[in-house]
Structures are given as structure tokens and as C-alpha cells.
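#data-curation
PF: Archiving a pair of folding outputs for the training set. Convention for this channel: one message per protein, sequence first, C-alpha cells after, nothing in between. First:
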Amino acid sequence: MLAFLSTVRWQDIADIALTSYILFRFYVLFRGTTVFRVITGIALLGFFQRVAVSLGLIVTSWVMQGFTAVAALIIIIVFRNEIRNVLQARNLHAIFWGTGLKRQTAPVESIVQAIYDLSRQRIGALLVIPGVEDLEDVVQRGIPWQGLATREAIKTVFWPDNPVHDGAAVLQGSRIAEVGVILPLSHRENLPSAYGTRHRAALGLTEVTDSMVVVVSEESGRVSLVKNGRIDPIADNVELSRRVREHLGIVVGPTRRQKREKVKLVAAAVCSVLLITGVWFSFTRGLDTLITLEVPVEYVKRDPKMEILDTSVNTVSLQLRGSESLIRSLKPEQVKVRLNLSGAAMGENTFTLTSENIVLPPGVFLDKVKPPAVHVTLDVPVARSIPVQVDWAGRLDPELRIEFVSVEPDRVRVEGGSGVLEALSTLYTRKVPLAKIVESGSMTVELALPPASVEVAPDEPEEVTVTYTVKKRQK
């Protein structure tokens, strides 16, 4: 255990903590919504896809992978309004730090008093108290009102002489957002005959959303509460007040429901940490896999007055180790070998390659480096004008002799390290075969620069013209 803990970096702890908190916040914001249930199903689908891969079920894993790939697009398109509603209804504090437990957002007593006033007068009513889910794509929009949800205002909406009394009223916080709203009807065939269109509409809405609907029967004056596709008759105003408060999350002092919600939040936080820790462990501490990469060497922080004249290697071979999933996802551009030349001196320098010179993604570890050291030759660049000489090769015809040779230009300016140019007294051309010379003439010949670090100056020619005079030998 101590050996394992010694390998854990502070970055790993921060990685687990941050990702766990993001997952927990996702749960807080979207719990109870259709989006959360769908994503939970997709996550399970992804889990079984990994199981299918490990069991070698090729077709099954391929089909599951296809469904998982389009899941994000499906969620964004189908549930865009619900996602927008969840995010827009909260401020930054609620998104990043809030617990998601709702506070008092509606005048419950005014609602209860108005409902029972309508019940005593046998005036039908349909009052919608939304939950978390958006109603925009479910109901037919009514008339925007945004009036305060007072006792008198609620009674006025459902008064028989009001043109919108047959529709539903939708609450938003302490206001009546819309009136005359048309709700979707339930298609259940097992409803008692005592339930009319209002009850069927309330059932239809609560079957597809998490809303609560208060229904007052016009025939009997009975008050019913509809939620989760279930109709519950309400005995008195005390029960109605309690049920509405529970739906809104209104609490006065610690209640059983509040404690239960806090336990759920704590459990969700613990599960988030355990899940992300398991994922992190599987990625970074899974079955070790070895891989060898050829990586080019990058030289950084070189003294601008000096240039690299020569290096012993251009690439190094790295043997890397990590979990199979990380190694399989590793890209060559994620691995870099960098040598810091800030302390290098003029001449040949030897650098031993260590883990400090090698950049690796998290979870991938270095086993071996080949070669273990790199030799780099640095020098100060200078320019010199050096005479040019023809490099003859082979033998001339014995009956001929060269009387005169000229080179144009006879001196060429070259650039390179000061140490190299000090030892260079003559520039030679490419080899000129004497066997091909049978008469006087001229030819263009390239220069043969000795070390690779020496280059012809930009304004100088890389070829010279050789003019020669040939005569026959006298017998």
C-alpha cells in the first residue's frame, strides 16, 4: 500500500477530485429529469459494450458502440429544451455550489385557500405546479399572464364567466405564468367513469413530466392531486398543503424527506468519487503494456550567438509503459524529447537523457532510453573567404599535359563554426576526372564542402567555372 501511494501524484488526486465533482454536479442539476434517466441508460450501454469487447463479442460490441456514438447527438437534439430550462433557471451559485434542494417558491397557503374556495362552490379547476422538467414541448401554450398567485387571482382564473376557465393555469414561482393552457390527454382505458376530461388531462401531463396537478371536480367539488400518473383524492386542506410543500421542497425545520434528500446527495457524492477512482485506476494502474517509439530530439533555449554544428543522433528510442487503454490511445505528438542548451558551451557537449527531458502524458511511464546520452557540438558562426582549388582525379592521357588552369571565382565566402573555419584553408571542387579531358575547354563544377556544418554564404555561388588549356607533349 505504501509503495502504491508513493506513486500517486498530487495531479492524480486533483484529477479525481475535479472529475468527481463535475459528475456530482451533473447529478444535482439533472436528477429526476428525463435527460438524467436517458444518460444513465446510455452509460449502462457503454458499460456492457466494454464487457462485450472483453468477452470477444465482436458484432454485439460494434452495435453497442454505434448506439453510444450517436447518444450525445440524440440528447442534445431531443432534450435541448429541458437542458436549457435546467441551466437557465439557475444562477452560477446554483450550478456550481447549490445542493439542488428547492426552497419555497410559491404561496402555498394562497393556493390551498383558493382551491378549497373553488371546491365549496363546485367550480372546476386545473392548476399545474411544474417540477424540474420543461413543459414547452408537452403542452399547448396558453395566454401569458405573469400575475401574482394570490387567492383571489386563482379564483378569478377559473371563474365560469372567464373565457380561459376550462384550460389549465401554470404556476412559476409565486406567479401564474400562463392561463388557458391545453394539456395532453391520457389514453388510459381503465379510468373510473367519475373522472372527466380534467382528470384525464392531468394524468396525461404527469405521465410524461414530473409536474404536479391540482384538480377540482366541477360535478362533485372533490379535490384530487395528480402526480407520476396517479390520482390521489385529498381529504382536507392540511393534506393538500403538506403534499404541495413536499413537491416544492418547502421545509420548516428538518423533516424526513429533507434528511432523505441529504442522504441521497451524500451517497451520490461518494458514488461519484468511487466511480471516478475506479476509472482512473483502470486507466493508470491496469495491465501494463510496453511500447517503443522513435521520437525526434528538440533543442530549446540555445544561445542565439551559437549554432548546432553536429549531433550524435536526431531521434531517440523510448520504451514506454502504461495500462493497455492509455497505450492504445497514445499519439506520437504527445511524447516529446527536449534538451535544454542554456548551459551548453562551445564545442562538444554531452547530455544524459533523463525523465526531466522527456514529456509524457499522465499515466504513461518511461522504462528505457536508447541511446542514453546525446552529443551536441556548438560553435559561434563566422564567415570567411577561402580559396578554391580543383580536385583532379584519375590520370591524364600520357600524350597530353595541362598547361594552364583557372577557377572563377577563385575564392568563395562560406559560413560555419569558428573552430571549423579556422582549420579550413582550401575549398575543393567535386572530383574532376582527368581521363575525360582530351582538349582545352571549361566546365562548371560544384563545390565540395567538407563538414556538413559549413555552408556557402547566401550571396555566393555554389558552383565554379574551371577553364583549362591542354597541349600535346613533344616527342
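PF: Second:
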Amino acid sequence: MKFISDVLKISGYEVLKATDAAVGISIAREKAPPLILMDIQLPGMDGLTAAKILKSDEKTKHIKIIATTAFAMKGDKERIIEAEFDGYIAKPIRYKELLNVIKSVIK
């Protein structure tokens, strides 16, 4: 999270942080950011479930969600995109790829 946060701040983005899915959902409902970078493996609730909750909520369904994940096996990207994510970045995260995916999703 620190690496991503630092890259985004240096690139001029405002960064809000959550340590788990429940806090992230709460922040999303309150702040309605244009984009969420969400890890798939989160404490408590996984990112797939959290994304489903956000995409089914009228207040948050418009928010773009990019998965950040260590799941990089064949078929993982397709499975994640089918779960209503708007983008996918496999770990280890490379800063140029991160910025390119963000730009392509938020246009």
C-alpha cells in the first residue's frame, strides 16, 4: 500500500487508505472517489466480495475498481474482470503499468 500510495501522490492523485474491506466500503460511501485500487486478499472480507457490494450499491456503483493482486495465473485476470472489476494489475506492481491502467480506466 505504501508503494502505491507514494506513486499516486507523486503523480498528483489524492489518496485515501483503508486497511480492510469494511473500512474501504465505508470510505467509498462517504467520499465517493472516482477510483478504488483494491487488493483481492484483504483481512475479513475478500476484495471480490467488497467489489460486489460496491457495484450493487446505488451510491458507489459508478466508482471504477481496479484489482491489485498476486493472483496472476492463467484465468485469474478473466475471473476478476468478470467479478465487475474495471481493471487488473498483477503484483509485483510496476509503477508505469499502475499509472497506465489508472489512466485507461478513469479516462
